[in-house]
Design brief:
By secondary structure, the protein is an alpha/beta fold. It is built from 12 helices and 10 strands. The radius of gyration is 18 Å and the shape is globular. InterPro entries: F420-G6PD/mer (IPR050564), Lucif-like_OxRdatse_MSMEG_4141 (IPR019922), Luciferase-like_dom (IPR011251), Luciferase-like_sf (IPR036661). Keywords: Oxidoreductase.
Length: about 300
């Protein structure tokens, strides 16, 4: 058991980040069970507008015994803050030590184009949302405030994740950025870092999957700006990312080489790392690569 806030007890320091939205939920639950059986300590999932990530979390928590389940992230634009807080409190009450509420501001093209909402300054949006969550009466599911992480790339959002949450959930970052995040947060806050991998097949296949994985993110200002802050330049933040960017952000090669890219974040100060298999299509089964990685990591 950790002495960090929230009383989260990861069975191991390596978990999985997986977009389960396209999968029928019964099939997704079977994959979650195997992820647990392989020795991974968590399952984090995004919220892209297809399924409610809190309902998915309940399904995965109910299908497993020890696995920590986290939202990576719950989009603050798709539910009011009091419902996010009360729903997360109920999951925390039902599954103590096993649920993490990751929150994020999403991206302007999605919020404006798909949701028809307004995208204001991210830091102000998040502060306002957290204020709304904090307005939920303490007696509602008393003593079960969920562990909160913020999707934090820039220094101000990282600072807010230490001030108003229990830590940060960095995504598509170098180990050096994990180290920077630790320096800002100090030792008493969680850092759960995502790390993409592309293993199996030829070197050309791996690089292609890495570029495919980066394609969407390279079109979003939040990530482009993050990469520029991390030392890349405009020639790297092209659509799909440059080869230099892809090789720096996606663990490629053998399972052992990919495992080293994962543990580099632990060495840089992460408490937990969630591995995301770069795939050609979201319906592609991540388990073959996760099995190989689990063996390389000796989970």
């Amino acid at each position: 058991m950790t002495n960090k806030p929230g009383l989260i007890d990861f069975p191991s320091k390596i978990g999985v980040f997986w977009n389960s939205e396209p999968w029928p939920i019964r099939d997704a639950q079977n994959i979650a069970r195997e992820i647990e059986d392989l020795g991974y300590g968590s399952l984090f999932m995004p919220e892209g507008g297809g399924k409610d990530v809190l309902v998915e979390s309940a399904a995965f928590l109910g299908a497993t015994e020890r696995l920590v389940v986290g939202t990576g992230i719950a989009n603050i634009h798709v539910r009011i803050p009091t419902m996010a807080e009360s729903g997360a409190r109920m999951l925390t009450a039902l599954y103590p030590g096993r649920f993490i509420l990751g929150l994020g501001v999403s991206h302007a093209p999605f919020v404006v184009g798909s949701l028809g909402g307004a995208y204001r300054k991210p830091l102000a949006m998040m502060r306002s949302y957290l204020d709304g969550m904090d307005s939920v009466p303490a007696e509602l599911e008393s003593g079960t405030r969920p562990t909160r992480l913020l999707a934090a790339l820039g220094p101000r959002m990282i600072g807010l994740s230490g001030e108003r949450a229990d830590g940060a959930h960095p995504y598509l970052v170098l180990p050096e950025q994990t180290r920077t995040t630790r320096a800002i947060l100090g030792e008493d806050r969680w850092i759960v870092t995502e790390q993409a991998i592309a293993i199996g097949g030829s070197a050309e296949d791996q690089l292609r999957r890495a570029h495919n994985h980066l394609d969407l993110y390279s079109r979003l200002d939040n990530y482009r700006n993050s990469w520029l802050r991390q030392g890349f330049d405009e020639t790297d933040v092209v659509i799909g990312g440059s080869e230099r960017l892809a090789r720096a952000l996606v663990g490629m090669g053998t399972a052992e080489e990919a495992a080293a890219s994962v543990t580099a974040h632990l060495d840089a100060g992460a408490d937990h790392v969630v591995v995301q298999v770069a795939v050609d299509a979201p319906t592609e089964d991540p388990l073959p690569d996760l099995r190989a990685l689990a063996a390389a990591l000796v989970l």
